[in-house]
Amino acid sequence: MNSKLLLALAFATPALWAASASKSASGSASGQTPPPPPPPDSLVLALDTDDDRLISAAEIAAAPVSLLDLDLNDDGRLTPDELIITPPPPPAPSSTGAATKPANATKAPSGSASTGAKKPSPPPPPLMVALDADKDGSLSAEEIAAAPAAIATLDKNADGQLTPKEFAPPPPKPAAKPTGAKPSGSGKTGASGV
Fold first, then answer.
1. How far is the C-alpha of 86 from the C-alpha of 42, rounded, in Å?
2. Range of 65's domain?
3. Domain count along the chain
4. Domain assignment present for 21
5. Per the domain annotation, does 2 fall within a domain?
């Protein structure tokens, strides 16, 4: 009796382990575990001085001083190179090897299907939109001085602080479906009744 039980366990244990491993692998591959949030941009890092992922009323009031911590050349303004906004993650390499194409590869000829296929750059984060009053991509001394009032415009619930929902960029929009011809195989033919 004991040998039959040991024999059954000997065969069942690897099968149970394999089933458990494939179940946990398929759970993570199916997207059940959400990816971690993207890191905050440099404006958030400068303003959120206590690292609690909230920009409190005190941090809003201290924004001019906090923003000047990013001023690497001490000229009183923040230029794009000092406003290092976290870029979106790079696209994953394709299985066809297209991502490994050399940088000096020949460009597509003018008028080809790839013309205009360049993805538009993502919009600036809401904090930058609020702070950059003249929309020139940098923050002048005047814009830095006016930072508390500009940041307060993002406080949608008027609680005196900004939550990540108020200062984080909106999630990326899904890719637009191409317009034009219907996909082949729709079941309709060009000739009627023939």
1. 7
2. 38-85+122-168
3. 1
4. no
5. no
Query: Considering the domain boundaries, does residue 162 fall inside one?
Result: yes
Q: Looking at the chain, how many residues does it have?
A: 194
pLDDT tens profile 118-167? 667 778 889 999 999 999 999 999 999 999 999 999 999 999 999 999 99
- Say if 80 falls within a structural domain: yes
> Is pTM beyond 0.85 here?
no
- On whether the CB atoms of residues 40 and 86 are closer than 8 A, the answer is yes
Contact 82, 71 (CB under 8 A): yes
Q: Which residues contact 130 (CB under 8 A, 6 or more apart)?
A: 150, 151, 153, 154
CA-to-CA separations, 190 to 179, 181, 183, in angstroms, rounded: 20, 13, 14
* Torsion from C-alpha of 68, 71, 77, 80, nearest 10 degrees: -120
Residues whose CB falls within 8 Å of the CB of residue 169, separated by 6 or more in sequence, listed in order: 122, 123, 125, 126
Q: For the chain, report the end-to-end CA distance as a whole number of angstroms.
A: 75
